[in-house]
Amino acid sequence: MIAPMQALMNGPAALGALSSSLKGAGSAPTAPGYGLTMWFQVKVSGVTGTQDLGKWSGCSAVQANFGTETINPGGSYGGPVLVPGRITYPDITLERAMDKAGAEEVRTWLRSVAKDWIGGAQAGKDYPGATVTITVYSALPSDPSAAGRNVVAEWVLTGAVPVSWTAPALSGKGGAVAVEKLTLAHRGFLGEDGGEATGTSGGQARLTLTLLDDSGNPAGADLEFAYNPAEVSVSKSSPLLTVHTLPEGHEGPQLRHVERGDLNINIDDLHLVGQQEVATTVGKVWAWLDPQAKDIGAGTGKETSKLLGRKVRIRLGGTGRGDGVNHDAALTHAHVTYTRFSAAGVPTRAKVRLTLQEVVEALPGTNPHSGGLPGGHTRTVTGAENLAGITAAELGSPARWREVADANGIDDPLRVRPGRALRLPGA
């Protein structure tokens, strides 16, 4: 609605602008090109059951807040380092004097939203919302002399949903105009998300899990999450052993790896929205946690059946290990919290927490945890041999004792039990 002009609030400033617009003595003043708070229009469209919620006489400020994260480096005290955070948009509140037609339009929309909000087709899903267009003018839009030149600014607020509606307070003590208020939350007006906020479109990479077969090839449909986690925690340990007693000619003490450390991945707050997504995702997670029976040693006379864990490939950005979150891993733990249910008791929204452990293929002929070298042959320890003497005789250099120790999980290179079979790398 084009609200009626009430008063010129900033007299001196407006008169100054008006004076500067005069082209000469006796000429008619031209309208200033400033947006005036009493000349605006609000249109709410694209909502269920209606295309327009009527005319409004008041609108709170349209605002965008650019969140920043602060880093305070040690030794640098001139000011913080500011890095981009999340852009947020405060709610807007529309208000107007109530009239029968406009009030009924709002109530019709609110009833439609409430039906879907509570238990309809949109229950638990991302609600699409409406589009709110706010236009500010420098002159009445109906003024033909200013046609096409009087729009100062326009904001298109996407995904607007009602967060509150307030009927006027009534009293028999006076004759004030009855004013209703409608407050809307929205996804913004800068157009920076490219549709990603809805989880249904846009070019953003999605967190994906793929079940793998024994050969490391995909074994079924991907499990793709519509909403990426805000954080992914990755940790890895590398156990070390301090070796003080070393073969002659080697300085000590030295540190060496006892075994290859496990890389663990923790993902919190994965949001599932919608009945179908909850059922499909949770069902796959439970199935992938169950071990599968495998026949081992077929044709060797030592056939047996073992329960083996399933391997999945986790991907979030990048194309390979170390580039984004890309690992072949075993799903070791899952925790699901159902946060919304339909009237029939079916979960329609959930939060999931996953824990995975990376699976690293062992090199041929090595202990999968030792990281030893492939190939070579087996050598049995005799008498009082030590690793330096064995590597000198078998590999041509006593300095290669560390490779043999790592490949065979030996803590003390000077104390190797006679009769033990050692796997030696290729020369």
TrEMBL record:
GO terms for molecular function: structural molecule activity. InterPro entries: Phage_T4_Gp19. This is LysM domain-containing protein. It comes from Actinokineospora bangkokensis.
